[in-house]
Amino acid sequence: MTASDSRASQPGGSSSYVTFSLADETYAIDVLQVQEVLKLTEIAPVPGVPDYILGIINLRGDVVTVIDARRRLSLPVREPDEASRIVIIDVDNQNIGILVDSVAEVVQIPAASIDPAPAVGNDQTSRFILGVTSSNDGLTILIDLNKLLSDEEWASLREL
């Protein structure tokens, strides 16, 4: 059972999400999949990988692949700055870093306030949108990390 399945079986409940910014929009990922948040560090490029893979970092002796969230979500690319962060996530017992513009906070989002993903974008980008919620601060797009990459892409990451 995934975290998403768990929420679905608890009508009326709420879950915690880590929110982050990309291209002036707010995104959220399940806090249970976040291992830690790092300041930007040196990322060693790996030749011959897809453009959304920035490279690898050494995280206390473990090699962690870092994905550019902007490229993966088909957003305009920009250079990282002081606010940029690498969010270390756990997907199927594999730690992956995702580079985001900034990390905001942990929020509680009631399951009842999550609307289905709108039919926008293409299948490549819309498949990892879990849903959308709105508040006084604007819209927050919930990302399904398990669908951020295809099965083949996850398998190729394990080989790096």
Automatic annotation (TrEMBL):
PROSITE patterns: CHEW. CDD domains: CheW (cd00732). It comes from Allochromatium tepidum. InterPro entries: CheW, CheW-like_dom_sf, CheW-lke_dom. Residues 14-154 form the CheW-like domain. It holds the Pfam family CheW. This is Chemotaxis protein CheW.
